[in-house]
Amino acid sequence: MVDLKTEFVFGPAYYAAGADKSGKTTCMTDIMTAFIEGRKLITSAQREDLTDEQRT
Description:
The model has no long low-confidence stretch (mean pLDDT 79). By secondary structure, the chain is mainly alpha-helical. It has a domain at 1-13 and 23-40. The longest helix is centred in the middle third of the chain and has 18 residues, at 27-44. It is elongated, with a radius of gyration of 14 Å. Helices cover 57% and strands 0% of the residues. The chain contains 3 helices and no strands.
């Protein structure tokens, strides 16, 4: 479920959607998923430095 007050599709994902019109790519989904996963990782660090594994 998407919360329209907290979830946004940012510029690169929006423009990548143009490439997705052919139905042969998933650029917008890939970019947005990577952004959300990165945000979860940063949040889980709880203001501690990220480990080398986490940065990778």
